[in-house]
């Protein structure tokens, strides 16, 4: 294969989740070697088994991305096992939609810890290796809620996704004199099951919105598009949403 994907070592934090697992399968089918890191061991086993049965290459690594020392340990292990990392995909995240007036600080804390800190810890772990080897590609999963505040109920989630967009753009600018690429993939409603994690007064509304959601494979194709570009082309942001989605 001559697609600029074949042979690349791709580490996916959140690789057992909907978008992460779809990207893992798609990239493996294009010849990438996949390192899947996730907290859900059972789903990781399933994804790795699927890839291997299809003739691809994948290994799994347990991680809690909210703990920076564990993210660094996974990166160290992947480099030891594969010799390098070419692409880091930060796909771990949560979407908990609830009005601020309901004051659920546990959900707020989880949102920031997983969406923002989890992305930061992935970057902190992989970036030194990218700088040392003089190449690499960081792909962060944002959201259309990082383009426009989703309200009512989405203020905290939007805050986390606005943060990811700002981090990605700041990192891209800092690395603009290096060969390291930075991409933000910004999905709209994607049928990953994440909509089922919204509880309380907003659950019915979220389920209604997601009736027209696109499959995770659509976002996986966008991720592959960013990776397969020539090394001197950096796709900085891709927005992928259902045709019928207004936000």
Key features of this structure:
single chain, 247 residues, alpha/beta, Rossmann fold, seven-stranded parallel beta sheet, two-stranded parallel sheet, 7 helices, globular
Task: Provide structural commentary.
This protein has 247 residues and is of the alpha/beta class. It has a single domain, classed as NAD(P)-binding Rossmann-like Domain (Rossmann fold, 3-Layer(aba) Sandwich), CATH 3.40.50. The chain contains seven helices and nine strands; from the N terminus they run βαβαβαβαβαββαβαβ. The chain has helices at residues 18-29, 41-53, 68-82, 105-133, 155-174, 203-209, 216-228, and strands at residues 9-13, 33-38, 57-62, 87-90, 137-141, 181-187, 190-191, 214-215, 237-240. The strands form two sheets. The chain has a seven-stranded parallel beta sheet, with helices on both faces. Strands 7-8 form a two-stranded parallel sheet. α5 (155-174) links the parallel β5 (137-141) and β6. The longest helix has 29 residues, at 105-133. The mean pLDDT is 94.
Write the topology of this structure.
Elements: E1 9-13, H1 18-29, E2 33-38, H2 41-53, E3 57-62, H3 68-82, E4 87-90, H4 105-133, E5 137-141, H5 155-174, E6 181-187, E7 190-191, H6 203-209, E8 214-215, H7 216-228, E9 237-240
Helix pairs in contact: 1-2, 1-7, 3-4, 4-5
